[in-house]
Amino acid sequence: MKRLVTTLLVLIGLSTGAAMAGSTYPDIPKAVGAPHPEGNDYMRLNHMRLLRHDRNLTVHDGDRSIKYSIKECVACHAVMGPDALPISVQEKGHFCRNCHEFAAVKIDCFQCHNSKPEDGFIDLLKQNPPATDDEIQAYLDGMSQ
Amino acid sequence: MKLPALNNKSERPAELNRREFFKSGAAVASVTLAPGVTLMAFGGEASANADPGKRWGMLIDVNKCSTDCNACVTACSEENGWKLDGNPETDPQWIRKIDLKHKETGREASLPMMCQHCETPPCVDVCPTGASFKRVDGIVLVDKHICIGCRYCMMACPFKARSFVHEEIEDQKSNAPRGKGTVESCTLCVHRVDAGRVPACVESCSATGNGAMMFGDLNDPNSEIAQALKNYPSMGLRDDLRVNPGVRYTNL
Ligand code: SF4
Ligand code: SF4
Description:
A: mainly alpha; 0% strand; B: 252 residues; alpha+beta; 7 helices
C-alpha cells in the first residue's frame, strides 16, 4: 500500500512538474481557426491515422471534400514568425515540430508536403487591413470543400 | 462485436455522427474499442470525385503549336512548383517542348510532351509497390506515399515522361507535393480537374492565342474534344505499342 501511495505521489509530482513553466513539456501554439470537435486529446493520439485514411481518399479516388488534410493542418496551426508570416518546420516553434521533438518522432510528411500554408492563405494573412477571424475561418472551412 | 452496416450518413446512429472522425462520406463506420484502437467497416458507395464514366484526355494540334513558344512549360512549372536545374539528366520531366524535323521533307514541327496518361500504362504494370496507378477517370499518377523510388516506371515509360527527384525540396506548392526519393510526372493537374478546371498548360496555351491544346472527357461524345477526334484525323504517339494514350496529336 505504501508503495502504491508513493508511486501515485511521484506520478502527481511528475504531472504537476510537467505543467510548470520551465519544464520540457512542449509549448503548444494556439491554432488560428476553430477547435477540433473531437477534442485535443483525441487529435494528439490519432491525427496521423486520420491523415493517412483521408490522404488515400484524395490521392486515389480524387475525393477533395475530406475532413482531414495536411493542407488544412498547416494553415490552421500556422505559427507566425517575426515577419508575421507562417514559419516552416525548419524553424523552431513550428506547431508540428514542437510536439514531435518532444515525442522524438520524426515527421516524414514535409519531405513532400509544404509545412507552410498554401499561397491563398498566406495572401489572406498579408491582407491590409488584416483579415478578420471570420474571414480566416471562412477560408479554412472552404479548404475542405 | 457486430458492426453496423451503414450506407449513408442519414442512417448513421447519432453516436457515430458525432464521432465523424473519418471522412465518413458514405461508407465508413468506425467504432472506438479502446484509445487508439479503431474498427472500421467499409460498405456502400464512396463519395469520390474521380468519375469512372469519364476519361480525361487532351488533343494537341501541332500546326498551332509554335517553335518559339514555351508557355505550357512555364505554366506547368509555376503551377506545380518545379524548376529545371540545368542538368538534363536529372531535370524534372513534367512537360517539355520537342522540335521535330522530317528527314525527307524538311517540315518542322514543335509539340509539348508529357505523360500521355495511357489506358494500359506500362509504368503501372511494372511498379512493384502499387505506387503507380491509374485513377478510374484515366489519370495516371504516382502515390508518393508508397513510391520507393526504384524507378522501374521511368524505364518502362515509352515517352520518358517520368523523372526522379534527386534533391531535397522545400516550399512545394500545396497542390503538388513532391519530394526527394520519389518519381513524378504530369498529373494532368489533377487538383484542378477535380475542381472542374482545365490543366495549367491548356489554360496558358489558350491565353497565348495559339490554342493548340484541348482538354476534355474523351468518353463524352458531345464534348468538344470527342467531336474533334471524331471529325479529324489524329494519332497517339507510338500507336504501335497499343498503350492507347489519353493525349492525342493532330497535324503531326
Ligand atoms: S506516358 Fe509513361 S508515365 Fe504516363 S501513363 Fe504512359 S507509361 Fe505511364
Ligand atoms: S519509382 Fe515509385 S512509382 Fe515508379 S515503379 Fe518504383 S515504386 Fe513504382
